[in-house]
Description:
single chain, 352 residues, two-stranded antiparallel sheet, 31% helix
Amino acid sequence: MFQLVCAVFVSRAVAQRNAAEKTVPEDVKEDGPLLAPLTSTPTAPADNPTTKAKAFLGKQLFFDPRLSGDNTISCASCHIPGKAYGDGIALARGQQDQLLTRNTQSCLNVGFYPSLFWDGRAASLEQQALIPIQSPREMNQELVEIEQELARIPGYVRQFKKAFGSAPDRDGIAKALAAYQRTLVTGPSAYDRFLMGDEEALSKEAKQGLELFQGDAGCIECHHGPLLSDNKYYRLRLSGDLGRALITGDDDDRYRFRTPSLRNVAETGPYMHDGSLQSLDDVVTFYYREIPSSRRNGLLPDTQALTGQSFSEIPLIVAFLKSLTGTVPEFIPPQLPVGRQGLLKEETSGVP
């Protein structure tokens, strides 16, 4: 039904495939390779091909606090390069440091996702980019105001002209931010090198964890493909957050959230949509014993705890999850264009 990418190591591939077939439904297998390396470049939409000028401009906008209503927070306030483009805390904080309701997801590899946010409310990075900017609880900025503000900054006027042939506007802001985020692609992890034929890339424990991941533990049912996510929505914790139902209006979607990517997962804790699990050990333990078995408002979780599996397996799966850490693009802080009122001290030099 499907092939693993490591054709050179036929015996290993067949063994992995057979193990996966024990737990993975037919409709999942038809989606494509269950285990596959990540490609190097996300596909951009036809109306926003990625260019150096757009990505350069998008990077500046991503780190510019002037995109927020009170000029105090930027996209990078919650998506910090040194924290794998997450923020390292359970719940995000927004305007005036108010506590938000969900965990910040990493921006690494977001260019590969067909939908964004925990609840899938955005169908593209371009659509996603403006939502936090306008949210009263996050950046709290009116789009017409940011258009006017950027139009008063000579450096931005020049760069929008170069990238889009127009003055600063909301369409260009969204497209530039999306172009920059499509450059945030992780390099090959130990897992990728193993899939491409390097038998020594994974430790003995990580290999055992991989066998459990795609076999008896069944993780691969939801975490497969290059991103190790099926991009579907599941009910696990039965918290007060209605999740996907807030977008679809369908009662059956209550408490469902999108499967997160496992790429660089060792660097992106705390975990779950509510940030309630601090470590990878906590996450795997949750799946082994702590998934609720009781109903909430007539609903059950979409899966059951692995009560028949041994706790001794947890460190092995964690070892495999740690092998999914790829190199993060080198971060060079951008210079931000100075406004006429001198909000920032230095004018940008060297637009590509």
